[in-house]
Amino acid sequence: MSDDEFDAFLTETELSGADDGPLAGRTVAVKDNISTAGVTTTCGSAMLADYEPPFDATVVERLREAGATVVGKTNMDEFGMGGTTETSAFGPTKNPVDPDHVPGGSSGGSAAAVAAGAADLALGSDTGGSVRNPAAFCGVVGIKPTYGLVSRYGLIAYANSLEQIGPIADTVEDAAALLDVIAGPDERDATTRYDAADGGPEEHPAETTSYADAADGDAAGFTVGVPTELVEGATEPVRETFHAGLDALRDRGVETREVSLPSVEHAVQAYYVIAMSEASSNLARFDGVRYGESGDGGDWNESFATARETGFGPEVKRRILLGTFALSAGYHDEYYEKAQDARAWVKQDFDEAFAETDVLATPTMPVVPPERGESLDDPLQLYLMDANTVPVNLANLPAISVPAGTADGLPVGCQFVGPSFGEAAVIRAASALEAAVE
Amino acid sequence: MSETPDGADDSVGADDVRHVAELARVDLADEEVAEFADQFEEILDYFAALDEVPETDADAELVNVMRADEVREGLSQAAALSNAPDSEGGYFRGPRVS
Prior knowledge:
The complex is a heterodimer.
Chain A: E1 9-15, E2 27-31, H1 58-65, E3 69-74, H2 108-115, E4 121-126, H3 132-138, E5 141-144, E6 164-169, H4 172-182, H5 211-214, E7 223-227, H6 228-232, H7 236-251, E8 255-259, H8 267-282, H9 300-311, H10 314-326, H11 332-354, E9 359-363, H12 379-384, H13 390-394, E10 399-407, E11 410-417, H14 423-437
Parallel strand pairs in A: 2-3, 2-4, 7-8, 7-9
Antiparallel strand pairs in A: 1-3, 4-6, 5-6, 5-10, 9-11, 10-11
Helix pairs in contact in A: 2-3, 7-14, 8-10, 8-11
Chain B: H1 14-23, H2 30-47, H3 77-81, E1 87-88, E2 91-92
Antiparallel strand pairs in B: 1-2
Helix pairs in contact in B: 1-2
């Protein structure tokens, strides 16, 4: 590959695919927390600087069977923890739209690779917005599938109950075509609704849907709900671009109506308590024995603690510690249990909204991409930037971010959220907006 | 963290951060401890608003999914050990237990 002027890649490679298939001749960049056999997979962490997975993730197998060539592993916030790709142990990625600005995160390298034309397509992972955020900030399309649509086998876990692998592309149709390839049941990931037992679902939704066919640009007759709580928090320039996008949709026969999701006021709190708690458990495996650098002498407690001191960056330590605290005796009920209540409440709110709408629309991010280096000092402010994306993960729903235009010369994304396994609806709505703003 | 579960005292001290770090097996430098204490106080104060969330039953339509219990190919021992910093006789070699 040519020069990587935006530092999108951590490893460049060439893993060729089958001779023919739906993605024959297409190049794909893969986020560096998705396992590639024999190709370094770091998760953006010093802990895994030399880790070479002994097996491929299911999505990587499917890419290559579909004819795609994997051209590299992309930079990311360490273990997916961040929204700017600045917590990577290997340095930041630049936004191809304006290199002084962050590309978003945590899948910032994947979005930047597509925006820069260094790959036709990319895979990211989305735990609280990590596909949609960088797609919005780099002016490309990103899809967060319904929990259970895409196999997580080989995805190095940060928060299992929230995360999904999702596609990033220049157009809605390309993103949807990539989703067609990676979606489907996998007996190695029981959360893909794999139908192997009595009482299981009859078929996996991906087996009966062509997502690419849904990108037909025609959402006439759709009712799009606009949750007031998720628009009010955006900056004025972002709101203006978002509302112009809604106007363009109405011109194409879409009806819009305001809806209310009162629970989302607590979504960021609930998301971070749950994600940090799961992280504190998931990342316990990194002790310098089976992989990573071993610690400095002493007994096993001392050795593990030094391996983790040097292997993890500040944001990862922060989340492990806060998660450990939220699960510790005396605090579990106050934080973790309440966060689970909030998660159920958010789900209920979405269900009620979908009783009278086809999809919901919000600005993907409440702000335009910040300048590099300006946001890392205040973790809480960074968490609040996730206000519009995390409710979707809490409710296990599908969502897409599609370019809606610019504000202050920087990209603004519009997010469409659909009912469970309603990928076709969000893809259709996004393709209509894409056609309208061209 | 010195707080009681009812939130009577929500200050977070260096000792609290060190205690949690010990539970999580993460050594911290002194500067990190001080920085985390300030940040944790602000973040936990923000999380405290979860107290306003009503009890809500999760309405999950979950079905257990099982697969047949059949022997199949797995990782070889050599592949499983390939990333280990240290191994001996086909086993992972870890630090001493005490």
